[in-house]
Amino acid sequence: VRHLSPALLSAGLLAASTAIAAEPVVFSEATLPHEFIRRAHTAINIDGKLDEFVWSAAPQINTFHRVTVGQEFGDIPQVTRARMLWDDEALYFAFTCRDTDIWAIYTDEDDRMWSEEVVEVFIDPDGDGRDYLEFQVNPLNAHVDLHIISLNPWDSSIEWDIDGVRNAVDVIGTINDSSDTDVGWTAEIAIPWPAFLPQITGGERPQVGDMWRLNLYRIERGAGAGVRQQIVDLRTRITVARQQMESAADTTVLARQVTA
């Protein structure tokens, strides 16, 4: 089940402020929702714990909407919260995910994270739907980063890396153990400003008052690691069987050529 932050559905505002506002500031009457991103005036340690004061002072995004269609999915039972900050070095994201059964399988960079439980960041600074970045991290702190070149036709590069990205998670519970009830997990991400260029168009370090377009997602899947592992194993067996069939077909053709 994929959840989307409505506050960042289509736009984010990057600005500096020394004041603490009680409510997010709306900067235009446009139909696209906006979020105010505060400057971090003290260092952020990327350890997944979110225990710096600057995080507690950052505006919190409280509502994520389900983007899967169909009434059969019902309400979202696992709450997600997010915050964002920036400083001279990087753009920061924090996720807090209520999760009673935390699980993850993939451990290597650029694995198929989107097929299990992750939090995701999509950043398209100029909002044109081209040349934007996607970053995902799972509860094992494995991540995948992609350069999305075009949506239509689809074109992307998983070989592209966000240079200098830092991410960490903190888990309150046990990963891949469905016999107990977990509390949840948090994720912390720092994307350095130089990492956006030259591939991510419009990705120069913003000035106060600039506006970027971005999305925050969380994928929550209730099947658990056991079911997911069975699917992965089945896919592996199918791939091996297909390769064996192709190899057998090639051998048969070669044998016919030799006989002829």
From TrEMBL:
Domain Carbohydrate-binding: 46-218
MF annotations from Gene Ontology: carbohydrate binding; hydrolase activity, hydrolyzing O-glycosyl compounds
SUPFAM superfamilies named among the record's database cross-references: CBD9-like (SSF49344)
Protein name listed in UniProt: Carbohydrate-binding domain-containing protein
Gene Ontology biological process: carbohydrate catabolic process
InterPro entries tied to this protein: Carb-bd_dom_fam9
Pfam families: CBM9_1
Cited Gene3D superfamilies: 2.60.40.1190
